[in-house]
Each structure stands twice: as C-alpha cells, then as structure tokens.
Specification:
The chain is mainly alpha-helical. The chain has 13 helices and five strands. Bound molecules: tryptophan. Tryptophan binds next to β1 and α7.
C-alpha cells in the first residue's frame, strides 16, 4: 500500500459492525468498496468505536465484529490490495478524535440529523459519545489524508462537517489535513425495505421479511422476495409512486448490471410474480459465493486475525504521521 500512496488517490470508508450485514449494506456500500480496490488506494475499517455509542451486549458485540470482518472479506475485499482493519486496533483514531472534539462546535454537532434521530430512538442513553460521534468519524478520515470518501446519503452531513473541521484546522495551522471529497458511487443502489419501500432497508426492522441478509439461505431469500410489497398496476416499469417495483428494479439492476430500460423490455407483458422470482434468483446467485466464502473465513479465525493485525499495523504507522503533525502544530511537547 505504502509505495502506491503517491500514484493512486486515497479512499477511506468504514462501516459499523452492529449486526448482520444486509443486502442494502452490500449493494449500497460494500460492492462499491470491492470495485474501487484496483483504481484507488483503499483503506477500510470496521467502526467498532462508533458502535458503542449505543449499548452493546459484550458477547454479541464481539461476535458481530468477527462476523462482519468475515462477511466483508467474503464480499471480495482483498487484504493484499487494500487495508481492512478494526478501528479500535489503531490507537490514533480515538486520539485524533479527542483533539478534533476541541475544534468542533457544540452548535454544529447539535445540528446533525443522525444525532437527533438516534437520541430520540435511545432516549434513555443520550451519551456524550453519541453527540461527538462525527468528530471520531472526521478523525477516521483525516488521519489517512483521504481524497475520497464513499458514503451513502445518510452520512453526507457528517462528511460535510469533516470538511469544515479540516478547513478550520488548516486555517489555524497550515495544511495538516487533506480536505476530502464525498464520493457517491454511480451504481450505488439505495435499497429500501421489502415490506415498506418508502423506508431504507434496515436490519433493526422488526419485520424480518423487510430485509435480506448476506447469510440468508436461498429458500429464505426467495420467500422474502416473493412477499415483497408491490402495487396493483402489474406493469414492471420505473415510475413515481411505484416504490416497491422501483426498489426491486434497483436491486435487480445493481446485481445484473442491466439498465432500467432493458429490465422494462425484458418483463414486458409479464406479471410481478415472474419479476419477483427473477430478482430473488439473481440475488441468490450473487450471494451464494459470498456465503460460501464466509463459511470458510469464519472457520479460520487465525487467518482473519492475521489479516486485521497486518492491516492495523500499517494503518497505525501511516496515521501516526498525521496525528504527530497535528499535535506538533497545536503545541504539544515532543
Ligand atoms: N458513521 C458511518 C455509518 O454509520 C460509519 C463510519 C465511521 C464511516 N467512520 C467513517 C463512514 C468514516 C465513512 C468514513 O455508516
């Protein structure tokens, strides 16, 4: 990774290991992470420090992190090409986050919609970490001098804050941080709930039929797609008000690479039953090798450990340079 730093642009992204990975996480984020590995210098992390802003049961938390690591390797993240580590293993993240907390205003953090949503949802645990979450996210990104950060729409406000904090810091001390650009992938599908297609697909949904996980069996996947909510028009076409069909078309397109136009043509005169079966089968085939590789990785803890330790070691060295630079500028004694 290090010798390529000059040539290729640096991409940083992270995902919270807060439970099973859904088809939404896969098509919306991870599939793009995989496809960026050749063109860019990619740095990916499991944001476990972010996860504890919501109370976790220790054994389950531990399992979620190893499961997420195995799943993402299984999706095709190649630790020979990219760095892929666990955030808490690299000490600079929490360290820079503290510094950035002192350059982030209470007012700007109060405006974060995710904070407002999450504090309403977890009213009994509105902790300081939940509030300063974006400063930790800014640290994640700025430590690696990232040029680009692939994010979904829900994280755009946090990235905007990251840019503001970086510019503020640079304004005070000179060029310490690269100001990152958001990267909204061309084919990054926003996958909606199969039961309420006006809402994002979420693993915390009470209705298990509303989401597909990477670990669902082919039978379960087919069943969930067959039950997906559609509309009464019975025409496969992309149009306003047809949220269910639009969502299924988005999923089908992301998996097969077919354009919406082509999909409409292929399913002309055919019912929703046929279409749902086709989408389900395409997803089953896409996820089959992922599930097989997951089984292999999860059974080989020492291989996974080797991967995340090696990545964390490189990330630690790389990020330490940025942390030291920032600390020297602030005036810490060395
Ligand atoms: N906050 C992001 C999410 O919940 C995860 C995340 C943590 C992240 N650090 C990041 C994403 C840095 C991009 C860059 O989805």
């Amino acid at each position: 990774m290090e010798q390529q730093t000059e040539k290729k642009k640096i991409v940083f992204s992270a995902i919270q290991p807060s439970g099973t990975i859904t088809l939404g996480n896969y098509l919306g984020a991870i599939k793009n992470w995989v496809s960026m590995q050749d063109e860019f210098n990619c740095i990916y992390a499991l944001a476990d420090l972010h996860t504890i802003t919501v109370r976790q049961e220790p054994a389950k938390f531990r399992k979620n992190v190893t499961d997420a690591y195995a799943s993402i390797l299984a999706c095709g993240i190649d630790p020979e090409k990219s760095l892929f580590f666990i955030q808490s293993h690299v000490t600079t993240h929490a360290q820079l986050a503290w510094l950035l907390n002192c350059y982030t205003q209470f007012g700007e953090l109060s405006r974060m919609t995710q904070f407002k949503d999450k504090s309403a949802k977890h009213a009994d645990n509105v902790n300081a970490g939940l509030f300063t979450y974006p400063a930790l996210m800014a640290a994640d990104i700025l430590l690696y001098q990232a040029d680009m950060v692939p994010v979904g729409a829900d994280q755009k406000q946090h990235l905007e804050l990251t840019r503001n904090v970086a510019e503020r810091f640079n304004g005070l001390y000179g060029n310490v941080f690269k100001v990152p650009e958001p990267f909204i992938p061309k084919n990054g599908a926003r996958v909606m709930s199969l039961q309420d297609p006006t809402r994002k697909m979420s693993k915390s949904d009470e209705n298990v039929n509303s989401f597909v996980t990477l670990m669902d069996s082919p039978e379960v996947i087919m069943k969930k797609f067959k039950r997906a909510v559609t509309d009464s028009e019975a025409v496969v076409r992309y149009a306003e008000g047809k949220d269910g069909i639009n969502n299924l078309m988005g999923i089908y397109s992301a998996v097969t690479g077919l354009s919406f136009e082509q999909i409409e043509k292929d399913f002309e005169g055919r019912g929703y039953g046929d279409f749902k079966t086709a989408v389900g089968e395409a997803v089953v085939e896409e996820l089959r090798p992922v599930r097989e590789r997951y089984e292999k990785y999860i059974a080989d803890k020492s291989y996974m450990q080797e991967c995340y330790k090696k990545s964390a070691e490189i990330a630690q060295k790389f990020s330490q340079r940025t942390l030291d630079k920032a600390m020297k500028k602030i005036g810490f004694v060395f």
